[in-house]
Amino acid sequence: MKTPSSLIERRALLGLAAGAALTPALPLRAQDMARHSAPAGLEIHPLWPNGAPGGEQVTAQEQVILRTPGGDPNDTAYLHIRDPWLAVRRPARPNGAAILMIPGGGYQRVAVNKAGGSIDAGLADLGFTVFVMNYRLPADGWAAGPDVSLQDAQRAIRMVRARATDLGFDPARVAVAGFSAGGHVAGRLATAFDRDAYRPIDIIDQLPTRPDAAGLMFPVVTMMEPYAHAVSARALLGSTPSSAQRDAYSVERHLPSNAPPLFLAAAADDRVVAAENSLLLWQACRVQNLPCELHIFEKGGHGLAEVSAAAGPSWMRLLNIFLTRER
After folding, report:
1. What CATH code is carried by the domain that includes residue 79?
2. For site-directed labelling of 61, which of 33, 46, 159, 226 has its Cα 20 to 30 A away?
3. Quick one: what percent of the chain has pLDDT higher than 70?
């Protein structure tokens, strides 16, 4: 039976094996790589034009794999990322806002492709200019260690804002949307913007890194037991992190008073990343009286699979309302 495109896209966003060991897959062959190239209409831009910082000790070679050997050539994941990038999808009817989209993969890989998919297409249909981000991983020996993905996220949102004029959106209406472990990257971007994670390299780095809103879908949030996602925590912090390290990388424990409005969506039956991750962040926002909207669906699992073919995922409709609401 052919895998539905909506299921392929859902897998691509959350990295379905995030809760288990990596599924064996072969690197793409040359002919597959040609099919994997960006289609007309999508723009691909490197985050670091002169190479990513802090890579002197990195020896692992970047790989692109098919998530299902012999399967859809656009159902891919990146391992050992050395040259992270942004893929840009322009809307037919812009609404004046942009979204930086951060896929998941358990910090072991990034489940993304350069062809885009139904989620970024759906957001573009709502009028958002969508930037899909690929990012480096902490276990590959980068000097920034656990902060390497934050470096890429801060660079990415600055690059988004740098494109505001020529792409026709408001640089003060730039949201971030993160999925699974990508939700942890997005959560850190939304809470650690008061410090630069890297040294400036050009004029783009004068732009702010605080997103104007953040949507976290079935996100990894905490590194504290008992609700930490074990795969993400191990990939991010190693096998024996200290309590101080776990605390430092738990998003719910480091909310600034000027955090952007947060949107959280998860399923009660998620067996990969416990919905308590979202609850912990909502409760932390509640304590500080910070704007936060929480949706816990009864069903949906890891990926919020309740999809209406006519109207798109429920979380997307709710996120659109949240992001376009006047405040």
Report:
1. 3.40.50.1820
2. 159
3. 85
